[in-house]
Amino acid sequence: MITVKDVEHVAKLARLELTEEEKEKFTRQLGDVLKYVEQMNEVDTTDVKPMAHAFDVVNVMREDKVVYEQTKEELMKNAPDVEDGFFKVPKIN
Length: 93
Prior knowledge:
flat; mainly alpha; about 5% strand
């Protein structure tokens, strides 16, 4: 059973300031959620395989093929400034 103290503790961890009305409201709502979860725990799932998705979805994969690989020189042409073969960027303080 969720108590107001539990809600206050979670609010403190989340750095939330709650009014007394919000504390009571969230205590009720979280209690209702936990009751629902308890109902779901009563369902017999012994013959149900674990799944990651509700539908039988399969990822369509393709083979990775390099069509065109740019050389370092081609890539460095895009740099506004280069030093010793590397991109030169402004210093960040």
